[in-house]
Design goal:
heterodimer, A: Rossmann fold, six-stranded mixed beta sheet, four-stranded antiparallel beta sheet, about 35% helix, about 25% strand, globular, B: alpha+beta, six-stranded mixed barrel, about 15% strand, binds adenosine-5'-diphosphate, binds magnesium ion
Chain lengths: ~250, ~400
């Protein structure tokens, strides 16, 4: 089976400032359909830079990147925008929803910029279906400010899903969430992955990485570890544990 | 992205900041409103001038003392005058195509009747004056050539004088005193209202010019000679004949002429030119305000782009092209300016109506002005919205997403 993502000796050097920063220094790896990968590493190790490259938000200074068989290393910005729209779904640490715009309209946003023209009704139905997948069908008309952090992140996941991407990319998706809502969000990811969606996420928390199937560790822009997770966390189990701990804390109070 | 959804996005953004949107449009509102008012008043003024020119009579050649007659605006300061009744007589005698003539003397005087007094203008004219000016009487009759020859103490009076001195009765047949001399009122002029310059055209007494010269103003010179040619085709030839005769009589050359001769066409042009100049001058001011309004829009759009950097980052990240973002902000600024334009047109129409109601000044709404105003406000929106929109479109999605 061909890889969804194929990186060959990818480099990214920032030369805008006083000194050159070599954020990514020769990473080669392949990601296959149905994988669920966590990229870990210390702060400043180049995780976000790598995610931006994977997400076609940025171009590598050197190396080749095949996404779904297409070489995207040298596409122009409009072509990259179309790739992002059609093949990639983004989830950010800070949710990045449009405020004063309902959950449904937020989810619809990528379809507005699609090459395929869809009727307003079709866009709406798709958005509602995606909200249903993340368990927020009943919050379609809520504004982000009326939703909890975990719910906002689930809206963002629904938005990432709406154009049926090849890969879901998430840079520290639980970075702003407490442990219980983190587990909920990871539960959504596990469910999506079980349905066959490829997911790549960045985290610096080991227990979050253990929800995934494969863990990569980056240090100073280089890939230093690439292992399959032996004992995965299962979201439902973890949520139940957290609930029990919570209940116990209340009893002893 | 479709234009339709871009428009929706733009409108939604404007609705979110209603007060700011309106304040931003204010410059355009004022600019467009001013354009509309100026054009309506200008058009109204033009219609008055046209009426006034029609009231001047037909096929008129005006001979003025001195060379003070500038731009058709006749005002005081004619000095002693350089024309004589003999000049007028010579014109009648030597030019065949003169249909009528009225030598004119003007002065101001206190007049009395019924124990009331009033300061007014005393016009000395011939018996043909009202025919030349096509100014009908509402009552009574005009004095005759006989009255002119005999330096008669007769007069006709304007409506304002009637109101001031004969409030309760018909003045025809009554006597009023000018400089203590009794003049019999033969007729009353029909009302004319205000002139373009705002003076009351009904505030006057007309007496034979001979009577004015000998009894009232004691002037020996004429201010003006009103000449009516017998047809429109010969206007220029009559004008040239008059110039020839007067040069001969006054021993002057084109450089030293102590008189001016204008035919009706020239007068018309001069007068409409004045109002048109005014209209364009005021429009220029209005346009400046449109430009200022445009700069206001640009300013707010720049603020808006900065404020919404993150939103732009999100849109770019999920697949918007630079062009989509450009269009979104461009539409926002065009909507702002068109909204301003529409409110400005409504405000301008309203203001014109108020002016025409309270100032009794005719205003004519000009469709051209509306088209120009709408066109200009859209152009202002595009022109001043382009730079901020391009700035938004050129943002880097990663940087924009990181923006706090
Ligand atoms: N736009 C940029 N210009 C210059 N240096 C950058 C830029 N973005 C990131 N870097 C640098 O690249 C290195 C890797 O950053 P990043 O990928 O954000 O790390 P991580 O996400 O793992 O914390 C850091 O040293 C950071 O300072
Ligand atoms: Mg990072």
């Amino acid at each position: 089976m061909p890889a969804v993502v194929q990186l060959d000796d990818i480099h990214k050097t920032y030369s805008s400032g006083e000194v050159e920063v070599r954020a990514v220094r020769g990473i080669s790896l392949a990601m296959h359909k149905g994988e669920f990968i966590a990229i870990m590493g210390a702060s400043g190790s180049g995780k976000s830079t790598l995610m931006n490259l994977l997400g076609c938000l940025d171009r590598p200074t050197h190396g080749r990147y095949l996404l779904d068989g297409i070489d995207v290393s040298n596409l122009d910005s409009n072509e990259l925008a179309d790739i992002r729209n059609q093949k990639l779904g983004f989830v950010f640490q800070g949710f990045n929803l449009l405020s004063r715009t309902t959950a449904r309209e937020n989810v619809e946003l990528p379809t507005l910029y699609s090459k395929h023209r869809r009727s307003a009704r079709e866009m709406r139905d798709r958005a509602l279906r995606c909200l249903d997948i993340v368990g927020l069908a009943n919050r379609a008309d809520h504004f982000p400010s009326q939703l909890s952090g975990g719910q906002q992140q689930r809206v963002a996941i629904a938005r990432a899903l709406v154009n049926e991407p090849q890969i879901l990319l998430a840079d520290e998706p639980t970075g702003n969430l407490d442990s219980k809502t983190s587990a909920e969000v990871m539960g959504v990811f596990q469910q999506l992955n079980n349905e066959g969606i490829t997911i790549v996420m960045v985290t610096h928390e080991l227990d979050i990485a253990h929800y995934c199937k494969r863990n990569l560790i980056i240090r100073d822009g280089r890939l230093v570890s690439d292992v399959q997770v032996a004992t995965r966390n299962v979201a439902e189990v973890e949520i139940r544990k957290l609930q029990e701990a919570e209940a116990e804390a209340k009893l002893t109070d | 992205m479709r234009i339709g959804s871009t428009v929706t996005v733009a409108l939604r953004a404007l609705k979110r900041n209603k007060l700011r949107s309106i304040l931003t449009s204010l410059g355009i509102i004022i600019g467009v409103g001013a354009v509309i008012v100026v054009f309506s008043i200008g058009n109204g003024a033009k219609s008055i001038v046209e009426a006034q020119i029609a009231a001047l009579g037909q096929n008129i050649v005006l001979v003025n003392s001195g060379s003070f007659n500038q731009g058709g605006a006749r005002s005081g300061g004619f000095g002693a005058g350089t024309l004589t009744p003999d000049d007028a007589a010579a014109i009648v005698r030597e030019i065949t195509n003169v249909a009528a003539i009225s030598p004119e003397v003007r002065s101001n005087s206190q007049i009395l009747a019924n124990g009331l007094n009033w300061q007014t203008q005393i016009l000395g004219e011939s018996g043909d004056y009202l025919n030349i000016r096509m100014w009908p009487l509402s009552e009574g009759s005009m004095f005759t050539e006989q009255d002119v020859r005999t330096v008669g103490k007769v007069c006709i009076i304007g409506q304002t004088v009637v109101k001031q001195l004969f409030p309760d009765e018909s003045p025809v047949g009554k006597v009023l005193r000018i400089k203590n001399q009794p003049f019999k009122v033969l007729g009353v002029l029909s009302a004319k209202g205000l002139s373009v310059q705002g003076s009351d055209q009904d505030d006057l007494v007309i007496i034979p010019y001979t009577s004015s010269m000998k009894r009232i103003s004691k002037q020996t010179m004429l201010r003006t000679i009103n000449v009516q040619a017998s047809g429109p085709d010969i206007l220029t030839s009559v004008q040239n004949d008059i110039i020839g005769i007067l040069r001969e009589r006054h021993h002057t050359t084109p450089q030293s002429d102590d008189f001016t001769v204008q035919n009706q066409v020239e007068i018309t042009q001069a007068r409409t030119a004045t109002t048109e100049t005014m209209t364009w001058l005021l429009s220029a001011i209005a346009l400046v305000s449109l430009v200022v309004g445009g700069i206001g829009i640009m300013n707010i759009m720049l603020v808006s782009v900065t404020e919404r950097t993150r939103e732009i980052g999100i849109r770019l990240a999920i697949g918007a092209h630079g062009r989509d973002v450009l269009l979104q902000f461009l539409i926002e600024s065009v909507v702002l300016s068109l909204m301003g334009g529409t409110l400005g047109i409504l405000g301008g129409i309203g203001t014109s109506e108020v002016i025409s109601y309270y100032k009794n000044w005719p205003t004519l709404l000009s469709p051209v002005a509306i088209v120009v105003a709408v066109g200009f406000s859209a152009a202002v929106g595009i022109f001043f919205g382009f730079y901020p929109a391009r700035k938004a479109a050129q943002l880097d999605p990663i940087e924009a997403l990181r923006f706090e």
